[in-house]
Design goal:
Elements lengths: L1 H20 L14 H15 L16 E7 L3 H12 L4 E4 L16 E2 L4 H5 L6 H11 L6 H9 L1 H10 L6 E3 L9 E3 L6 H15 L4 E2 L2 E9 L2 E9 L3 E12 L8 H7 L17 H8 L4 E2 L4 E8 L4 E2 L3 H4 L3 E3 L13 H10 L5 E6 H6 L2 H7 L3 E4 L2 H8 L3 H17 L20 E13 L2 E2 L6 E3 L5 E7 L16 H22 L2
Parallel strand pairs: 1-2, 1-9, 2-6, 9-19
Antiparallel strand pairs: 3-5, 4-5, 7-8, 8-9, 10-17, 11-12, 11-16, 13-14, 14-16, 15-16, 18-19
Helix pairs in contact: 1-2, 3-8, 3-17, 5-6, 15-16
């Protein structure tokens, strides 16, 4: 109970901070109790979330209706994509978000969105295929992925890029992530982090389409009658409970990467690791769906990301390595293929005595990955005009770091990494001063497990039958990624299956 009370208190404090600082929907508790550490935690989370959210106000509480065609629980990328497609199909959807701002974990996404056979790849002479994307994702997941979901995913990835482009969200700057052989990770034109750009664009479209989006709206239960979903019970501003009815409910609440109790239940070996997840990622949707008879898959499959800044639990995106960075140990030596899959890179870091490593890159990488500017602002980046100076900043032997850099640059020149067999992220060497470094270690990043759906995004029960009127998309869903997620696939998942949930739920409502 104490943990639940603390979580509620953090949420209330977050609400207050948003109202004071950026203007929410103007309906919040005025309680200001809480100790300094909780206040600081709430402030940090809220600041991070607001940076990716729209400046405009959300829907005022007094505009809430008792009934909507489709109720969408969660205002991340999947939820907003679902709402836009449902609206386009003539529906009257509503989005309910428990946090003070829209975005969820989508805001924290960094590297980009994977897609194959896209118009932007073709424009840039990148030869790719859906089959190769499928094969590499299946290999990355150790052949445990849900193959039907995966096939739908890759075949609809280019269409998702086109759809985003059609609503003013252009992802035409393409890089590569670990486990991939082709450049298919689509980013904003300036190479910046995808998450905040995506959230800002989706919120803008949601508001332009007049779709109501309520924040501080914590859905506690999905209601049902005679085996059919009827709506939700929702607590507004931790004070007013309402029952809202709908012909369909789409759950897009994300994973449980910030729920230490849930993680400890399924993976006690991960106890003590930092998490990159925002505080709202607590598995609410999974629990609510289980109560309705929905089933889960792969719940013990939790991805640990290899490159997380430990003090602030902040993800250092894979695009940094994709654009040429290397990883070195405290001895100044490379120790793995930096572009291997996340589980393999994490395992290599954990074999080091310090279970931590250092990303090293140059001005060229910095110019190609705009997210590094954010890392600088947050104080993560060490810098020097020389390798010797950088080694001093990193506290590693200068002669060894120089040798490592020389060996790497020769490997790039010869297109052959004799040490670790790296073949991607080698378009440019690391010779352009100034030089940079970021200290990193593994952190909990993504929960591959979740509720089971079919390709229509219908939530399935233990018998494999759809629960009438219930749909789900995004990280709340399990099965797509298998035992390991490829970087860039989560952003693709939320758009591809978010859209599908909006389309299929609209078809379901019209058929009633």
């Amino acid at each position: 109970m104490k943990k639940k009370a603390a979580a509620a208190l953090i949420l209330i404090l977050s609400v207050m901070l948003v109202i004071a600082g950026c203007g929410s929907n103007g309906n919040s508790n005025s309680n200001s109790t809480g100790n300094k550490s909780k206040d600081n935690e709430a402030k940090k989370e809220t600041t991070e979330a607001v940076s990716g959210a729209s400046e405009a106000s959300y829907t005022p509480y007094d505009q809430l209706k008792d009934k909507y065609d489709i109720i969408i629980v969660g205002a991340g990328g999947a939820g907003m994509s679902a709402a836009l497609e449902a609206k386009a199909k003539g529906m009257n959807p509503v989005i309910l978000e428990k946090m003070p701002v829209a975005g969820g974990n989508t805001t924290k996404s960094s590297s980009g969105m994977n897609a194959s056979q896209t118009k932007f790849q073709k424009e840039q002479g990148i030869e790719d295929s859906n089959d190769l994307f499928y094969e590499e994702t299946l290999k990355g997941g150790h052949d445990t992925n849900d193959k039907e979901l995966l096939r739908f995913f890759v075949d609809n990835s280019a269409g998702a890029i086109d759809w985003l482009d059609s609503i003013g969200i252009r992802l035409n700057n393409i890089t590569i992530t670990g486990g991939m052989k082709e450049k298919r990770t689509h980013r904003p034109e300036d190479g910046s982090a995808v998450g905040q750009y995506l959230v800002k664009g989706l919120v803008k479209n949601v508001q332009e389409q007049g779709i109501p989006l309520f924040v501080n709206a914590d859905v506690k239960e999905i209601t049902e009658k005679d085996g059919k979903v009827t709506g939700v019970k929702v607590l507004f501003n931790q004070a007013d409970e309402k029952i809202i009815t709908g012909s369909a409910v789409i759950v897009t609440t994300g994973g449980f990467g910030a729920n230490k109790e849930m993680i400890a239940e399924v993976r006690p070996d991960l106890e003590g690791l930092v998490t990159t997840n925002q505080i709202g990622s607590t598995g609410d949707g999974i629990k609510m769906i289980e109560k309705l008879g929905g089933t889960t898959v792969d719940m013990d499959q939790i991805q640990v990301h290899p490159t997380v800044q430990q003090e602030k639990s902040y993800l250092i995106g894979e695009a940094v390595r994709g654009e040429g960075a290397i990883l070195v140990s405290s001895e100044g030596k490379r120790f793995t293929n930096e572009m291997d899959t996340r589980d393999h890179v994490t395992a290599a870091i954990n074999k080091l005595p310090e279970k931590a490593a250092i990303l090293v890159f140059d001005s060229g990488v910095k110019s190609r990955v705009k997210a590094i500017e954010q890392y600088e602002k947050m104080g993560f980046v060490l810098t020097s005009d020389s390798i010797e100076g950088l080694a001093k900043e990193m506290n590693v032997p200068a002669d060894q770091l120089q040798k490592t850099m020389d060996t790497w640059n020769s490997a790039v020149k010869n297109k052959k990494d004799a040490e670790f067999g790296r073949t991607t992220g080698m378009d440019n060497d690391l010779s352009g001063a100034p030089f940079y470094a970021i200290k990193i270690g593994p952190g909990i990043h993504y929960t591959m497990g979740g509720v089971k759906i079919n390709t229509n995004t219908e939530v399935l029960n233990k018998e494999g039958q759809p629960i009438t009127g219930l749909f789900a998309a995004g990280e709340v869903v399990g099965g797509l990624h298998g035992q390991n997620r490829i970087g860039g696939n989560s952003v693709a998942e939320i758009i591809i299956f978010g859209r599908q949930a909006g389309i299929k739920s609209a078809e379901f409502v019209k058929a009633q």
